[in-house]
Design goal:
Elements (H helix, E strand, L loop, with lengths): L1 E2 L2 H18 L4 E4 L4 E4 L4 E4 L1 E2 L13 E4 L7 H8 L11 E4 L8 H8 L16 H6 L3 H8 L2 H7 L18 H4 L11 E6 L5 E9 L2 E10 L4 H12 L6 E5 L13 H12 L4 E3 L8 H12 L8 E3 L4 H9 L19 H14 L15
Parallel strand pairs: 1-5, 6-7, 8-11, 10-13, 11-12
Antiparallel strand pairs: 2-3, 3-4, 8-9, 9-10
Helix pairs in contact: 8-9, 10-12
């Protein structure tokens, strides 16, 4: 039994299997050193292996195998295991995988579009998980508010969508999301930065209830962090409600001057203003996919909620939302088309992720909820 990486194998696949065995009073012994499970009733052995290094899967005769999170597994791992189905004592040789759709990848090609009589696919929307719904009846309705429409269709409904084609921020509609906004002097500013020399980019945002309002942008060609601070204070030095700083985790790295970008920001705000400042920056950036999904969910959730508005003066951010695309047949953002793109949308993603992660996680638990 395998999973793409050892942490996924240990924390999800393996933990869930042990839970099922215990709940059903099935006797077993687990050899942690060999990562092997012995089922005492049948004297069967289950070997647990991560499959990221698929060449190490050679040499074993198997009666069956199962792979969790198949779409995050290389096709070569499946083929290696399929070639090991040759245990002479087995009454039936079989392999199975479980997955959530992730575009038109090798899993779709092998098991859905170009399938042969040797394979069978069982497709089940999330709402068929009656065990979960008995525990949390509104689980999927709550996800409709957290996911954008396409991501909801993929993750919850199990639909195959070409999410990697076209615009990265597909829910953006200038007629819906762009409107004249004004700074509320009673609310804290949210200043989020993406540290690049060309351009040095940052956004000024406020939160109105659950809606992010992007009020202003600072874009400096061939700029420095110091210049960004100077421009920010030129515009917002007298904002009495203070500022909270967000941004790219790479800003913690030391520069040739000896100070990190965030140290420069801190020192400049203290030295040249009386602004109350606090800092909410991750030590490591979230994944690109996670940032994109969160921003898209604020642009328009699967439930149709719009939680992100942009002032028309934020012209470079609007260009990002319209022009940033994925590379063909991949989930990789095409940064080569225009070097000026992606920086402001990245900065916004860091802020939204930092705020979003503080929300209570829906149905969080280690492992999977199973019936």
């Amino acid at each position: 039994m395998g999973a793409p990486t050892f942490p996924m194998l240990r924390d999800a696949t393996q933990a869930t299997l042990f839970e099922i065995l215990q709940e059903n009073n099935i006797p077993y012994e687990f050899n942690k050193a060999d990562n092997m499970l012995h089922l005492l009733d049948t004297m069967s052995r289950v070997i647990f292996r991560p499959v990221d290094d698929f060449e190490r899967l050679r040499g074993t005769n198997l009666a069956w195998f199962g792979l969790d999170e198949l779409t995050y597994t290389q096709e070569e791992a499946w083929l290696r295991l399929e070639g090991r189905l040759r245990d002479p004592k087995a009454e039936r040789l079989c392999g199975f995988g479980v997955w959530t759709p992730k575009g038109y990848d090798w899993v779709h090609r092998r098991f859905v579009s170009d399938t042969t009589g040797n394979y069978q696919v069982i497709r089940a929307p999330g709402m068929e998980n009656t065990f979960l719904l008995r525990q949390i009846p509104d689980f999927y309705e709550r996800l409709r508010s957290s996911y954008d429409e396409k991501f909801y269709a993929q993750e919850v409904l199990g639909e195959y969508l070409n999410l990697s084609a076209g615009r990265v921020y597909a829910p953006f509609d200038e007629k819906v999301h762009v409107t004249s906004l004004h700074v509320d002097p009673t609310r804290e500013l949210m200043w989020t930065l993406d540290f690049n020399v060309d351009p040095m980019s940052s956004l000024i945002v406020q939160l109105d209830g659950e809606t992010f309002q992007v009020l202003d942008e600072i874009v400096i060609r061939n700029g420095t962090t110091m210049e960004a601070c100077e421009e920010f204070l030129k515009r917002y030095r007298r904002h009495l409600a203070g500022v909270c700083v967000y941004g790219d985790a790479s800003g913690y790295q030391k520069q040739t001057t000896g100070n990190s970008d965030y140290e420069i920001v801190t020192q400049h705000l203290v030295a040249y203003s009386t602004l109350k400042a606090r800092y909410r920056v991750q030590k490591a950036n979230p994944s690109v996919k996670e940032r994109i999904n969160l921003v898209n969910s604020k642009l328009r959730s699967a439930a149709g909620d719009v939680r992100l508005m942009i002032d028309p003066k934020c012209k470079e951010l609007i260009k990002d939302f319209v022009q940033v695309v994925f590379k063909t047949d991949s989930f990789v953002i095409d940064k080569d088309r225009d070097r000026l793109r992606t920086h402001l949308s990245d900065a916004l993603g860091y802020l939204i992720y930092q705020e979003h992660k503080e929300e209570s996680t829906i149905g969080e638990r280690q492992g999977r909820l199973v019936s």
